[in-house]
Specification:
Length: about 350
């Protein structure tokens, strides 16, 4: 018996600790005993499955969710169609999720489902891709970086590489994608500057953020436009696919089958997806931001809003632990961080 005493003591201490952990504060401030304290549930709904970019966003969300002791899950539709996220949202709300972090496939197709979710107390945070023009159907929008600068920056990257002269095309994601459409609008606006007078946008094609469709669209650009000097693909899936197409065709600058100066490709993608293409000289430079940082900021703001510790006021700044200060902009839009440009000199420093 005596030999067992230490075990018994240890068990009692542990049990009292567990009971301590399981007690939770009631709304009136009293302590409710028994039953595990339910964790706040957060679900991340990316545009679609199988996109390495969203794995990086998810990493940031998961890490922050761990630090904030949330229950975390990712649920994505197979394809990035305008309405494909509807059943996912509805199902999650039925399961009692409290925070949805959503990269939207449509500016408006989700309005009603999101309204219903919010009526049940679910906090809606858009991340990466917003409900452009319908921002009132979510609580806060965490965008990667200043959206108005992405389109012009992409155009300038290509312009500089082709001496501001020649035909170019855009290989986008889906026709409805709110983020790509905002960036393309920014490129078209910037194109009006006299600096770009000799550059001509010949076509915008859509690869739907599917590798195969993106490759097919990139290949047909090459055949349809024999004088093409450049392609901008502002989607991580499109840029990676187009790089492979240019490599296979050998038509990149300096490539074995390049006509004249070759076809310059740039856009947005993760450094890890593009390292080989940059090493081989198929792509000289491209851009992105830190997807995990954006995910972490979205998670933190979602939790603060859900627990009513934060009220959003345009112009206010919020300190996000470990991620610096963010400013609440018009329409409750928050920009997470800077736009980064990668090339052979710095790409090795990044691992995402
Ligand atoms: C694709 C998606 C995503 C976009 C990136 C750059 O992964 O379309 O929404 O932000 O590209």
């Amino acid at each position: 018996m005596t030999k067992r005493t230490p075990y018994l003591l240890a068990t009692l201490v542990l049990a009292s600790l567990i009971v301590g952990c399981n007690s939770s504060k009631s709304a009136e401030g009293g302590t409710v005993e028994g039953g595990p304290a339910a964790k706040t549930k957060l679900v991340f709904i990316p545009k679609n499955t199988g996109n390495p970019y969203f794995n990086q966003v998810g990493k940031g969300i998961e890490k922050a969710a761990g630090e904030l002791t949330l229950e975390f899950d990712t649920q994505a539709p197979a394809a990035a169609d305008a309405t494909s996220q509807l059943p996912v949202i509805k199902d999650q709300v039925q399961r009692g999720v409290q925070i949805i972090v959503l990269s939207s496939n449509s500016p408006d197709a989700l309005n009603e489902a999101l309204d219903q979710a919010r009526a049940k107390g679910t906090t809606i945070v858009t991340v990466d891709s917003d409900l452009t023009g319908n921002e009132g159907h979510r609580d806060v929008g965490v965008l990667p970086t200043d959206f108005s600068k992405i389109g012009p920056a992409q155009l300038e990257l290509l312009g500089k590489a082709i001496n501001y002269e020649g035909e170019f095309a855009i290989l986008s994601a889906t026709t409805d994608a709110p983020n790509q459409n905002a960036w393309i609008a920014g490129m078209k606006e910037a194109l009006k500057d006299s600096k770009y007078a000799k550059m001509k946008l010949v076509e915008v094609v859509y690869g739907d953020d599917e590798p195969q469709k993106s490759s097919t669209e990139a290949e047909s650009l090459l055949t349809k436009h024999p004088n093409l000097r450049g392609i901008i693909s502002p989607t991580s899936v499109g840029l990676a696919a187009a790089a492979q197409v240019l490599e296979n065709a050998g038509v990149y600058p300096g490539g074995p089958k390049a006509k004249g100066a070759g076809i310059v490709l740039t856009g947005l993608s993760t450094p890890n997806q593009m390292k080989k293409a940059v090493e081989k000289g198929v792509v000289a430079s491209f851009q992105l931001w830190d997807p995990a940082d954006m995910g972490a900021i979205a998670t933190y703001l979602g939790v603060q809003l859900q627990s009513k510790k934060l009220t959003l006021k345009v112009g206010d700044t919020v300190e996000v632990p470990g991620h610096g200060k963010v400013t609440i902009g018009e329409k409750n839009i928050v920009f997470a961080g800077p736009l980064l440009t990668f090339d052979k000199n710095n790409i090795g420093k990044y691992d995402f």
